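S., here's the first fold you wanted:
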Amino acid sequence: MVINPGDLTSEQIILIQSDAHFLKNVSTEAVKSITAGGFRVIMITTNQPSMILLKMYSRANINTGLVFFIDAITNYALGKDEGDSEDVIFISNPGDLTEIGIALTKALKKFENEDVCIVLDSISTMLIYVSSARISKFIHYLTNKIRLSDIHGVLFAAKNGIDPGFMIQLTTFVDEIREE
């Protein structure tokens, strides 16, 4: 099991690394475990569109009512602006880290009375759109926001998909690194 809900203590942040071809399955299993523990998941996705993830989660018997998406890929891939919905905030493109941060603040306000786990899928995909220096600043912001909000966080990255210097920075931001 990737994540046992008992592993998620307040302010704890876990980085999960997986082989690239298993990352989708590992992420889905983690979301399944987290939601089964009663947590609200705020999924920041730069890897898969929220529509695709919803279908995958439904097939995996995940309670999708506990998943809220900050979808940074759909508008970019479609070349048009999808309107936000009750369960999704769409970001214009995966490289707009400011827009992602604003959406995260809105989502946290919406679920401020719930036990929340922020899931970022994936750091490796973000590297396609943004330099590692900018992502490092964003991850530092994100991890501090998680800690200060007294919530939980799970970050995903492809194993061997991050250069060693950047990986050293990431290790200083998280509490635990797991390899799946």
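And the second, which I think is the more interesting of the pair:
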Amino acid sequence: MEKTQEIEDLLAPIAAEKKVEIVDVQYVKEVGSWVARIFIDKNGGVTMKDCENISYVFSAFLDKSDILKDSYILEISSPGPNRVLKKEESFKRFVGSKVRIQTFKPINNQRSFLGTLLNFKDGKMKIDDVANGIVEIEFSDIKKANIETDV
């Protein structure tokens, strides 16, 4: 199992208890140090105080679990306006939003899509792509997806 998934699996029940969603987990080596970067969200958005509180809780569980063998820096933050979409629930939540999607394989000779997420049902989504109109994409074909904001 990938380390990021192990981290998410460990912390997901705690996040649910604290009424936050784990949007994304990254575990990367940067400038010689390991960084565990966890993006959280909740209804109404995340404040700095939320990040601080969750940091204390997650840190205690990570240290106790011994999942991360090396010393690490823990960063907790909001996913920001161009948040990543990784889970089916996230796609359902953001129906009607503008999204940017990259696929593993071409769909109609295209791998990059930008448009409005029209629906998500039965592991498939439809988007109104600015270049080619309505396109259906399987959830399993998504390499990367983000909310697209005009900031």
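Why I say that: Residues 48-65 form the longest helix (18 residues). The mean pLDDT is 93.

Talk tomorrow,
H.
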